[in-house]
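Hey, I'm writing a tutorial for new members on how sequence and structure tokens pair up, and I'd like a real worked example in the thread rather than a made-up one. If someone can provide the structure for the chain below, I'll link this post from the tutorial.
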Amino acid sequence: IVEGEIDYMTVAQEGKAVMGVNSGAFEKMKKMNWKPGMQVCVATDNDKTGDRYAERIFDNIWPAIGYRITWEE
């Protein structure tokens, strides 16, 4: 899961399964069928907004296991 359109396009070019989020996506994300043990990489910017997005994503993908990487400018 990535923050924003540019990050989405970058990862999608690599042929990886990717989901880009914006502030309107969290309610839909919460309704997805996240399973225990499912591992989800959360890639957000290394700033306050990225920190907030990552926390919201982790809350919404439970019971999946989220781990975070940060994009550096």
